[in-house]
Amino acid sequence: MNSILLLALIPLVPLLAVPVILATAHRPNLREAVSVLTGLLLFGLVATLLGQVDLQAPPTLVLAEPLPGLALALSPEPLGMLFAMVASFLWPVTTVYAIGYMRAHHEDNQTRFYVAFAASIAATMGIALSANMLTLFVFYELLTLATYPLVTHAGDAAARRGGRVYLGLLISTSIAFLLLAMVWTWQLTGTLTFTAGGVFSESVDPTILSVLLVLYVFGTGKAAMMPFHRWLPAAMVAPTPVSALLHAVAVVKAGVFTILKVVVYLFGIDLIAQLAVAEWLAALAALTILLASLVAMTRDNLKARLAYSTVSQLGYITLGAMLGVAAGVVGGGMHIVMHAFGKITLFFCAGAILVAAHKTRVSELDGLGRRMPLTMLAFLIGSLSIVGLPPFGGTWSKWLLVQGTMDTGMWLLTATLLISSLLNIMYLVVIPVRGFFARPASGASGLQEAPIASLLAIGVAVLGCIVLFFSPDPVYQLMKGVFR
Amino acid sequence: MSLWDHLPVLVVIIPLMAGPLCVLVERPLAAWGLALAAAWLSFAVAVALAAQVNGTGVISYELGGWAPPWGIEYRIDTLGSYVLLIVTGIAALVMVAARESVASEVPEALAARFYAALMLAFAGLVGIVATGDAFNVFVFLEISSLASYALISMGRDRRALTSAFDYLVMGTIGATFILIGIGFLYMMTGTLNMQDLAARLPEVWDTRTVRAGFAFLTVGIGLKLAMFPLHLWLPNAYTYAPSVVTAFLAATATKVAVYALLRFMLDIFGIDFALGRMPFEYILLPVGVIGILSASLVAIYQVEVKRLLAYSSVAQIGYMLLGIGLASTTGVTGAILHLFNHALMKGALFLALAAVAYRLGSTTLQDLTGLGRRMPWTMFAIVIGGLSLIGVPATVGFVSKWYLVLAALEQGLWPVALLILLGSLLAVVYVWKLVEAAYLTESRDDVKVQEAPLSMLVPLWVLVIANVYFGVNTEVSVGLARQAAAVLTGGSG
């Protein structure tokens, strides 16, 4: 198939699923089959595009030109393809999981759920393939709006509160900072197209560049850099499949993806290496990593703990981007993939525990390994991958990030990464360990696993963690392509 | 002369004649039909005019065959044809929705006169834009204002009477000021033709009379366009007027006032005088910014949705003033663009409220609870209109915000850019109050509500789609606005 056609189809296919899902609202089996099939089709399309397109000379598809000289356009590049691959692969997996979860949990408004989910994926694909900052911004905002009904799915007071924080932080940072930074860039350079090596000329005042970088980083609220991270724990009022795909993969990764794109294609890493403010931002990212880990330890609610863990892990990627060295960016990009598989496993398990054992608190999970051995084993693997231990995928991205901090000689950042790994063990790995070895507090015994559809999805995610350890090369080569 | 040559006057004459005819036919349905036909005919004429201006440039029409500057000249340029399109287009759409809404809100005995007044108000607004004669502007302004006072007083709520009276007092002061201003200019130049005025004014720039005239005109037009802090009449007038009137006036009347401001300040006085010799930007920038922030803050605390949107209108007018005050081609482009875009947003939002009022009788936040399920099309229209008001990308609001922020940055005024964006954030708060009420609050079970009738939904959704369409394809809207702005700011570039 023609590459331009593929580019058009990738965001369009999930969008076209919306009317079909609406039309099949009263036949749940058909409705969910549509969702899964669309997901598989989408992944097929993204993989085909990756297979045939020459990423060094990519085609560009112009959708519209809302402002003179500034188009809404799509164009594949390595980082974007990586993100699109991860998100499109995990979408059908999550849909299979959601079928088990939503039915077992007797959730209302399931049609609205699948519709908003498909719309969110369409927006995510738009972000991944955007050829310029304006296009990215448009889809970034659409993603916020499309996920809002998912966050407020329950429709009660807690959901309303969570939704306010979610929307308030994401919209206000993006409008007040990101939009300003974007218009400013346009005014300075006359282009917003992502260009290898950056768009700023030598003559631009470094002070202005520093201000711009700060605006970009804080404007990308989805990257959950402290102090704008509160929306992520707030979003945990959503049903678990939403937390799993959107708030461990699509939305948050869209945030760090934006930062990576800005760093690589608007500033260029050489310029980043010269800016003193980048070091401060790296330090702030390190602080985010540590503080979020510490907060995670104090959280008894399992999903809240995972949310803070995500905040911390996103800090890794922002940190990698701010180093101004290739290893940092490559490591950051790989961490998008590795963390996606690890964290989605953990969220899947959290949901499985909620559905099968009706438990939401970490303190109630002692001895649960005897009732839900598969789920707990998966949880262990996911946690180990996030800690960065072999034989799981997380090892490689952490390796590269550590190498990046060493390249810059900022040993405090190296230390931060290592300390953070220890903290991960203390608040994540401890959960399955206690699940297997601690004595259950009370309650029923005997096997009581999650619905089969959910277990299937968990299996795929776990497999991903393991496969990515043994063959990380495709991911690595793709990321290396950024600097070719 | 063929009919084609008479278009500039036809666009005014058609609604002006339709007014008295509405009274004569007396039956509400017939009056509505007449008004509807007149509105669509005017729209068709406006489209033809825009095409003509685009093809052959400025059209000058000599009324009664008397050559200007002695006779009255009608003059349509790019800016004029652009505003005419907005006003007649909105009027045509609003008239489609009017039948059901008016039948439910205005007593049957008054209906024919209601349509007559609506047509007169419409004719007045169109006349202000079409004419090239300064005194004519005052005459048409009075026609439209007097008709508006009558229209507002026909609201169901008895408070409509006091708000119409408030508007009458404020509006008359404004009109008087405008008349005094025009009188001063006439005194110094001996002409009322706009082109002639523009040519003769530079000789007498440095006289106190011209300066006083400038000040009187600024305040007078400021009152009409609800420039902060002269906006006090607007929230009540919009809240208590019949829904259709609110939708019509919100989308057209203030826009025409902004047009008058642009015409007088940048065209007749000229940008060199207004922004060079008079400290116009030092008035417009702060007034605009304070207007945006204070009106948005007030909007957040409203429980009556019409009033909430009325305050939002005051804030949006602040954006337009700010754009003019930035005194660059980009800034004026932003202002003219926002004039167009805001007409689309507010037209859509107030028509949606007309639909809510039609089904529920009132439009408080309380009434909106749970409507997301019961009136899905109407409420979704409000959501999209609201997103456009915030300035979310892929809506028209984003395009105007882009130009305004860009204009502020071009001048190195980044705090102003930040304040513009802060205004958007305040808009998020008040728009989301509506969304939460409609979608995230349990509905009252005692009322049975259906979706609005099709005759209201169709014009509403035409406007909603326009909000998205012109947010993505800006060839026409930005193209015309830029062209008009380039002419107005000609000297300063």
Task: Give the helices and strands, then pairings.
The complex is a heterodimer of chains A (484) and B (493).
Chain A (H helix, E strand, L loop, with lengths): L2 H21 L4 H25 L8 E7 L2 E5 L3 H27 L5 H20 L3 H19 L5 H33 L16 H14 L11 H4 L5 H28 L1 H6 L1 H23 L3 H21 L3 H32 L15 H15 L6 H15 L2 H27 L14 H19 L2 H8 L4
Antiparallel strand pairs in A: 1-2
Helix pairs in contact in A: 1-2, 1-4, 2-3, 3-4, 3-9, 3-13, 3-17, 3-18, 4-5, 4-9, 5-6, 5-9, 6-7, 7-11, 9-12, 9-13, 11-12, 11-16, 12-13, 12-16, 13-14, 13-15, 13-17, 13-18, 14-16, 14-17, 15-16
Chain B lengths: L6 H19 L2 H29 L2 E4 L10 E4 L1 H28 L2 H23 L3 H20 L5 H31 L4 H7 L7 H17 L8 H8 L2 H26 L2 H7 L2 H21 L4 H21 L3 H32 L4 H4 L2 H4 L1 H15 L5 H15 L3 H26 L14 H19 L2 H14 L5
Antiparallel strand pairs in B: 1-2
Helix pairs in contact in B: 1-2, 1-4, 2-3, 2-4, 3-4, 3-10, 3-14, 3-20, 4-5, 4-10, 5-6, 5-10, 6-8, 6-9, 8-10, 9-10, 9-13, 10-13, 10-14, 12-13, 12-19, 13-14, 13-19, 14-17, 14-18, 14-20, 14-21, 17-19, 17-20, 18-19, 18-20
**Low-confidence runs of at least 5 consecutive residues of chain B:** none
| Quaternary assembly | heterodimer
Beta content of chain A: under 5%
Can you count the beta strands of chain A? 2
Helix content of chain A: over 70%
Percent in strands of chain B = under 5%
3D structure, described in words:
The complex is a heterodimer of chains A (484) and B (493). With 484 residues, chain A is an all-alpha fold. Chain A has one domain. Chain A is 74% helix and 2% strand. Chain A has helices spanning 3-23, 28-52, 78-104, 110-129, 133-151, 157-189, 206-219, 231-234, 240-267, 269-274, 276-298, 302-322, 326-357, 373-387, 394-408, 411-437, 452-470, 473-480; strands spanning 61-67, 70-74. Chain A has a two-stranded antiparallel ribbon. In chain A, helix 14 runs antiparallel to helix 16. With 493 residues, chain B is mostly helical. Chain B has a domain at 286-486. Chain B has helices at 7-25, 28-56, 78-105, 108-130, 134-153, 159-189, 194-200, 208-224, 233-240, 243-268, 271-277, 280-300, 305-325, 329-360, 365-368, 371-374, 376-390, 396-410, 414-439, 454-472, 475-488; strands at 59-62, 73-76. Chain B has a two-stranded antiparallel ribbon. In chain B, helix 2 runs parallel beside helix 4 (108-130) and helix 5 runs antiparallel to helix 10. Chain B is globular. The mean pLDDT of chain B is 88. Classes of the chains: A mainly alpha (484), B mainly alpha (493). Chain A binds chain B through residues 64-68, 72, 134, 137-138, 141-142, 145, 149, 152, 155, 159-160, 163-164, 167-168, 171-172, 175-176, 179-180, 183-184, 186-187, and chain B through 387, 390-394, 398-399, 401-402, 405-406, 409-410, 414, 417-418, 421-422, 424-425, 428, 432, 436, 439-440, 471-475, 478.
